[in-house]
Amino acid sequence: MLDGYFGHNNALQMTQQCGLHLISKLRTDATLHWQPTSSPKGPGRPRIYGEKFNPRQTDPKYLISTEMTQDIRTEVYQMNLRPRKFTTLLNVVCVLKTYLTTKQQSHILLFSSDLALDAEKMIDYYSLRFQIEFNFRDAKQYWGLQDSMNVSKIPVDNAANLPMFMVSVSAKLTNTFRGENTHYSVLDLKSHYRGLKYLDETLKILPQKPEPIVIEEITQHLVSIGAIHYTQPELNPG
Description:
Elements: H1 9-17, E1 23-26, E2 32-33, E3 63-69, E4 72-83, E5 90-99, E6 104-112, H2 119-127, H3 129-142, H4 153-177, H5 186-205, H6 212-224
Antiparallel strand pairs: 1-6, 2-4, 3-4, 4-5, 5-6
């Protein structure tokens, strides 16, 4: 699944060379054609383009669903169309919104190279685009994805997969802390485990370990250093 910026033939060819299907979005003014309904009458190359597709006048037989929300009617159509700037037939989903009070219309065009993918799944998958972008944002901001300078295959795989793995791990750990602090963030999580690491290294060099209650108080203080959302612990001097 790629952003609409990559909704073009080059991205599609790249995806298919990897043995995958592409889901993306077309421009609203993309030129799409139905498949030709008539066979060629003479010699020459057979036609590949039929009539031009009009998203505002789609045959009702391609209607998948209709939904009414206040004064907005949302219709979902699905059909196989051939774009002018693509080399293959595409599975296209047209989401047409009609504002009943003003009669104005707007539409979006989703597409996939998987001709068997149903409209509902295509819309659901594309709706995950923002979550995917957030995952990459977190991987770059918190876990070093943007700092990778590798060029060979194995180091690139490691440099890409480890930050994405840490995004999933940190999300799981953060949820456990949010039971006590709903604003707990990744920065708080990093501060927590950084403090635990400092404590562990410090205890290794001490000739004698402090009492457990003292270690617990020191731990509370160390894990709060650098955190964004925390309650400053009250240390007992005695």
